[in-house]
Specification:
- By secondary structure, the chain is an alpha+beta fold.
- It is built from 2 helices and 6 strands.
- The strands form 2 sheets. It has a 3-stranded mixed β-sheet, with no helix packed on it.
- The longest helix is centred in the middle third of the chain and has 18 residues.
- It is elongated, with a radius of gyration of 16 Å.
């Protein structure tokens, strides 16, 4: 759950402060399963996703210094979350097996009929 506003005519009434509630899906992709026959440790992935979301849940993003001057659209937030998860993978927070993940896709569902997402590739660490 967030509050935010946008700059730009394209956003119409959403230029005013408003709230949004998202259901967040993170998908981890890889070409081959690891030696445990998994893509990622779902428990660790859930834990780290919750940490990423906690940084802006129940906040007015317009007041958060890290988002100053940014139109925090659904798509931008999906990218931000994907980038944060990529950092977590790089740091080893999702376990050593996660270094084999090829891509992350994040989808933010605003309702059952409206959602947007972002997908990014990861460079395999070697």
């Amino acid at each position: 759950m967030i509050a935010h506003s946008f700059r730009g005519e394209v956003f119409g009434p959403a230029q005013r402060l408003h709230g949004a509630t998202f259901l967040v899906d993170a998908t981890f992709k890889r070409a081959e399963l690891d030696s445990d026959n998994i893509v990622v440790d779902i428990g660790l992935a859930t834990q780290e996703l919750n940490k990423v979301l906690a940084a802006f849940n129940y906040r007015n993003l317009d007041e958060e210094p890290q988002f100053a001057g940014i139109n925090t659209s659904t798509e931008w937030l999906a990218k931000h979350i994907a980038d944060q998860l990529a950092e977590k993978i790089s740091e080893g927070a999702l376990g050593e097996g996660a270094h084999g993940i090829d891509a992350i896709a994040v989808t933010l569902h605003e309702s059952h009929v409206a959602w947007a997402g972002y997908e990014r590739a990861l460079r395999p660490s070697g």
